[in-house]
Design brief:
The complex is a heterodimer. By secondary structure, chain A is mostly helical. Chain A has three helices and two strands; from the N terminus they run αααββ. Chain A has a domain of 36 residues: Histone, subunit A, CATH 1.10.20. In chain B, 39% of the residues lie in helices and 13% in strands. In chain B, strands 1-3-2-4-6-5-10-11-9-7-8 form an eleven-stranded mixed β-sheet, sandwiched between helices. Chain B is globular and about 65 Å long. Chain B starts with 8 loop residues before the first helix and ends in a 9-residue tail after the last helix. The chains are: A mainly alpha, B alpha/beta.
Chain lengths: 95, 486
């Protein structure tokens, strides 16, 4: 299973990462090699087998819907790379 | 008094209780040891000596007040993906290089309630993705048994610190072998608990259906004591097991006569080192001498598929978990882009290391349109088959015994440019991980001067039986708290 440079760039775009030309060619080769090793799974008979998302038989675990203290605005903003007037600052989303 | 750092946690507890020394003296001994060893071992990303001495003074007050418990005053290393309020927590990534957590993880709350003393935050592979601690943005850790070798990973800093005397005991995390393999490489005891036994609240996420925090220690008793401290229900993690956690120390010192041990033949593969094979075969004879029955003819045919299943599921979950690092809310921001999207792409590219990018790419691909059924869904179905085979085996056997890793510790640089060779390192720890089962690694001797690890796998929440088997072996073998010359 050989991934092309275009496919690698498409995946990078989905993952919101810019890659250098060197990374594109390296990842194309390495990911193709890794995917080849995964091909053996296709031969495993899984007809009628339910997928396992999670090892424990727990589902729909809810907590009580009660008001409780949360992080203060100052704590929530403390690690933000850029902020202004109590907000996180980003570049314009719409052009 | 200068060698207090050589004590196990339970030995230290005896000394503290009998007032032979104080926690401040014990902690100072560890801080002095860090000063002597850390430049060669590089076990820590962040050291916290002032916090440690303050916590040690509080611990001494607990002993004076009669409220001390087994971990009170014991110096502990904390893996740097475990959030500690006010103390930088990086996951060994540039993207979190300046991150100061606004709250504590559940496990850190638990060890603090117990009065343990934090020496610092230990090195690891970035976001726990790796088997050697070479994928750290802060540089590799070195194996105290031989400084040219890796300590294993991803919890390599926790293992190296514990083996070097830079703490008495440590917290690691295991997703596909990240506690058991470094414990094996450094001659220590490590436990990956049953999925759901330990709350993941406040743990920087890698693969959410696989991640568990657990102990790395110098003997089985210490590992059981630390696991007791951090286990139990936490409503802040919806996958936390609501049933009460049993007292694992109760399982120490038990007779294992009649215990049924299965040895799956798929774990004795081509390419495994002869020295590892020999030590494991000798260990099986020790179990027999203790009255256990050992069946060497067990087969778990889907074992070989666990590698592919894991390296599809874990990167897929990682690609979703790591979507949060966008250079906006916290963490590294590039800031040279002209649009928000460009800023985000450059922040992620500049902030993540090569292995993390590789896994995000792999996971994004496996989840993308057209490939989801062939990769992610298929892997989840084969995961079910792996679980079923284990459940069949546990009808006949109490525990399964295997090598922890096919090799002993390997040289720094040997596998770092060959991702698949690095992934193969985890081949014996991955099956229990994908099944969510508990596994313990403990030392079973040396091969060419380096520690070999024995893995004991048990059924869901059957850590007690694993601990009984491990403790009986450790006492018969006489290998507890064996530290390297450094």
């Amino acid at each position: 299973m050989a991934l092309t440079s275009e496919e690698v760039l498409h995946i990078a775009r989905l993952a919101r990462m810019s890659l250098t030309d060197d990374e594109v060619s390296r990842f194309a080769a390495q990911l193709s090699g890794i995917l080849d090793h995964f091909a053996a799974l296709a031969a495993v008979d899984t007809d009628g087998v339910e997928p396992t998302a999670h090892p424990l038989p727990l589902s729909n675990v809810m907590r009580a819907d009660e008001a409780r203290p949360s992080l203060s605005q100052a704590d929530a903003l403390a690690n933000a790379p850029a902020q202004e007037d109590g907000y996180i600052r980003v570049r314009a989303v719409l052009e | 008094m200068s060698d207090l750092w050589r004590l196990t946690a339970h030995e230290a507890h005896e000394g503290l209780r009998e007032r032979k020394f104080t926690s401040v003296e014990l902690t100072q001994s560890v801080i002095d040891r860090v000063a002597a060893a850390e430049s060669r071992v590089h076990a820590y990303i962040t050291l916290t000596p002032e916090i440690a001495l303050e916590q040690a003074r509080e611990a001494d007050a607990k002993f004076a007040a009669g409220t001390a418990t087994p971990l009170t005053g014991v110096p502990i290393g904390v893996k740097d993906l475990i959030m500690t309020k006010g103390v930088r927590t990086t996951a060994a990534s540039k993207i979190l290089g300046n991150f100061i957590p606004p709250y504590d993880s559940h496990v850190y709350e638990q060890v603090r309630k117990a009065g343990a003393v934090m020496v610092g935050k230990t090195n690891m592979d970035e976001f726990a993705m790796g088997s050697s601690t070479e994928h750290s943005a802060f540089g590799p850790s070195h194996n105290p048994w031989n400084l040219d070798l890796v300590p294993g990973g991803s919890s390599g800093g926790s293992a190296a610190a514990t083996a070097a005397g830079e703490c008495l005991i440590a917290l690691g995390s295991d997703t596909g072998g990240s506690i058991r393999q470094p414990a094996a490489f450094c001659g220590l005891v490590g436990i990956d608990p049953t999925y759901g036994k330990v709350s993941r609240y406040g743990i920087i996420a890698f693969g959410s259906s696989l991640d568990q925090v657990g102990p790395i220690a110098r003997d089985v008793e210490d590992a059981a004591t630390l696991l007791d401290c951090i286990a139990g229900h936490d409503p802040r993690d919806s996958t936390s097991n609501p049933d009460p956690a049993p007292d694992l120390r109760h399982y120490l010192g038990q007779d294992i006569k009649g215990m049924r041990i299965g040895v799956p033949r798929e774990y004795f593969v081509e390419g495994m080192e002869q020295g590892v094979r020999t030590r494991i075969e000798e260990a099986l004879k020790v179990f027999e001498s203790l009255g256990a029955t050992v069946d060497r003819d067990v087969s778990l045919p889907s074992t070989d598929h666990a590698l592919a299943v894991y390296y599809i599921i874990a990167p897929s979950e990682a690609s979703a978990n790591l979507a949060r690092y966008d250079g906006v809310k916290y963490g590294f921001r590039d800031g040279t882009g002209t649009t928000m999207w460009e800023d985000m792409e450059r922040s992620r590219s500049g902030g993540f290391g090569t292995e993390v990018k590789r896994r995000i790419m792999l996971g994004t691909y496996a989840l993308s349109a057209g490939y989801y059924d062939a990769f992610y869904l298929k892997a989840q179905k084969v995961r079910t088959l792996i679980n079923r085979e284990f459940q069949e085996a546990f009808k006949k056997y109490d525990v399964l015994v295997t090598p922890t890793s096919p090799t002993v510790a390997f040289p720094i640089g040997a596998k770092v440019d060959d991702p698949y060779a690095m992934y193969l390192n985890d081949v014996f720890t991955l099956p229990a991980s994908v099944a969510g089962l508990p596994g313990l690694s403990l030392p079973c001797g040396l091969s060419e001067g380096l520690p070999v690890g024995l893995q004991i796998i048990g059924n869901f929440f059957d850590e007690g039986r694993i601990i009984s088997a491990a403790h009986a072996f450790e006492r018969a073998f006489g290998n507890a708290n064996r530290l390297p010359e450094l």
